[in-house]
Design goal:
Blueprint lengths: L1 E4 L12 H7 L4 E4 L16 H14 L2 E5 L10 H20 L4 E5 L7 H22 L2 E5 L9 H11 L4 E6 L10 H8 L3 E6 L7 H4 L26 H10 L5 E4 L8 H16 L17 H9 L5
Parallel strand pairs: 1-2, 1-8, 2-3, 4-5, 5-6, 6-7, 7-8
Helix pairs in contact: 1-2, 3-4, 6-8, 9-10
Length: 312
């Protein structure tokens, strides 16, 4: 299993310093999420060949690898001009991924929930053009349903992945999206089965609680989606169920820490998350005897991360 860090909270760290920063936080793997100097949100990638080569050297020096590249594009949006642009951006992002020597990418379904049939049609149109490229380049694509996508429900997302019918496409379960996916964490993971190859780890609150009045937004009837990406223990995800289900399924894919709520203590949060993930997975029988998946944290660092976690 690869335990990775999504370094979005560290996106202001210069690109060539990022690998050593991630290594110092106790990780050997990065989930390379959007950043403005490489692959930004929703627009064409910025990196040229020299940038990629220099970044690879920095990764080698730090002993850190890119586990997966995460681009976000409007490839299922109902606007056709946006969709065509997104496909062009995807093609360059795939080129950069290949240049980095990475074989995994992950992304969201995108699209609009109020235009579900139209968005699904756009999704298939984009995939018809991109799937042959993923397969030709040997890139594995992991898809996740996101709040406000044209697919938000976990089981429906698994069905969509099955419908793509490609060995290169599988399912990503994002823990902080649990309550938007339907709330049945173990059931969705088990339903995915072998298609479950990637998980995101962060906590969140159940927006459905208090008769749907936990979060009050105006005007009444707003369709906005609310969720958080918090440290483990700060929300309402049942982590015993989460990790217990993964152990029962003998999960051995990519597990990414993706906390976004604490930029003022990004390093402390990242260390704490690594320690918590290690604690929850330490006894997994199917991983015993495997090579170390990351730098071990010393006791002081682990305690500091716990003390600064902000948990109540």
């Amino acid at each position: 299993m690869k335990i990775a860090l999504d370094p979005y909270m560290l996106r202001h760290v210069p690109l060539l310093e990022l690998p050593q920063t991630v290594a110092d936080l106790g990780y050997e793997y990065i989930e390379l999420s959007p950043r403005p100097d490489l692959i930004p949100f929703f627009v064409h990638p910025r990196a040229n060949r020299q940038t990629v080569a220099d970044f690879r050297k920095a990764l080698d020096r730090a002993g850190v690898e890119i586990a997966t590249v995460l681009p976000l594009y409007r490839w299922a949006g109902p606007d056709e001009d946006e969709r065509q642009a997104a496909v062009r951006y995807w093609k360059r992002a795939i080129e950069i991924t290949v240049e980095l020597g990475v074989q995994v990418m992950n992304t969201e379904f995108n699209g609009r929930p109020e235009a579900q049939p139209e968005s699904e049609a756009q999704f298939w149109r984009s995939l018809e053009e991109l799937l042959p490229i993923f397969e030709r380049e040997g890139i594995q694509l992991r898809l996740e349903p996101h709040p406000d996508d044209f697919i938000e429900d976990g089981r429906l997302a698994v069905d969509m992945v099955r419908g793509i019918n490609s060995p290169n496409v599988s399912f990503l379960y994002c823990a902080p999206h649990t309550f938007h996916m339907g709330g049945d964490m173990a059931g969705i993971m088990e339903y995915a089965g072998d298609l479950l190859t990637h998980v995101h780890v962060a906590d969140t609150f159940d927006h459905r609680a208090s008769s749907g009045l936990r979060y009050i937004v105006n005007p009444p009837g707003s369709t906005c989606r609310i969720h958080q990406h918090l440290d483990i223990g700060q929300g309402e995800v049942d982590w015993d169920v989460f990790f217990g289900t993964l152990e029962r399924l003998e999960f051995d894919g990519i597990m990414t820490s993706c906390v976004f709520a604490w930029e003022e203590r990004a390093r402390e949060s990242s260390r704490f998350m690594r320690e918590e993930i290690d604690r929850h997975t330490r006894g997994w029988a199917h991983l015993r005897g495997a090579a170390p998946v990351g730098h071990a944290l010393d006791d002081d660092a682990a305690l500091d991360g716990h003390a600064l976690s902000g948990r109540r």
